[in-house]
Amino acid sequence: MVGVYAFGFALPMNSVSDLHHSINLIHAWKKNIILVCINAGISCAHIQLYGGRQMKSNVMIAMAILVFGNLFSALYDVSIKWLPEGSNAATFLFIRQLVSVLMLLPLWFYAQKPTTRHLKIHFFRSNTGALGAVCLIMGLMALPMATVSSLFFSAPLMIVLMGAVFLKEKVTLTQWLATILGFIGILILLRPSEINWFGIAVLLSAFTFALNQLALRKLPDTENPSVTLMLYNLLSIPLTLVMVLVQGLEGVSWELVGMAALSNSFLLAYHWACVLAYRKAEASKVAIAEYTGLLFCVLFGWLLFDEWLDGLSWVGAGFIVLPSLIIPWVSAKMVNFRPKKIIEPKAG
Question: Does the keyword Transmembrane helix apply (predicted)?
Answer without folding.
Answer: yes
